[in-house]
Amino acid sequence: MAEETRRVPMFLSGPTTATAVLLPMRLYVGWFWVKLGLEKLHSGWLSPDSRFIVDELNQISSPNFVSDAFFSAARENVVLSQWLVTGLQLLFGVLMMVGGVTRVAGIALALMSLVWWVCTNYPWAGWQVPMALMSLTLCVAAAGRYLGLDAILKARMVKVPLF
Fold it and tell me: What is the end-to-end Cα distance of the chain in Å, rounded?
């Protein structure tokens, strides 16, 4: 009888209601990264003759180990690097907004924030550390279980890794 009178869908009730508090944070983090990716799209990062990433790398004074590992690879493969940066920002931002595979998206966005934080020589007044902490929080809490694609897939019993 309890199942017949239930008016709230299964993926909106139960143990997942605690993640409802994280919905605004999930939407903000996703919007922030989509906005960064769209800014890169509009400024022409994906054109084959652009060298925006090289200009960005020249302005950064980062530690030597980052310069040796990351920057040399980015300078050798400029177009690939620009596509990867823009594409991953858009992909993981959209995944975070729709609540799809939020654990993977949270880890990826936290890593991108921390890499940028290290590359810019550890500025404590920037957006990178708070964004990494918010992304990790969303990852640990599996925030897509409330009004997200993760909840819909779980309600339909679709096996997706890292729920």
Answer: 30
Task: Give the pTM.
Answer: 0.78
Bigger pLDDT: 50 or 37? 37
The model's pLDDT over 89-99, given as tens digits with 9 standing for 90+, comes to 999 999 999 98
Beta carbons within 8 Å of 57's beta carbon, 6+ residues apart? 71, 74, 75
Measure the CA–CA gap between 129 and 136, rounded to whole angstroms: 11
Taking a C-beta distance cutoff of 8 angstroms, is the pair 149, 98 a contact? yes
- In sequence order, the 6+-apart residues with CB closer than 8 A to the CB of 108 are 88, 92
> How far, in Å, CA of 14 to CA of 2, rounded?
13
Structure tokens at 45: 């990062």
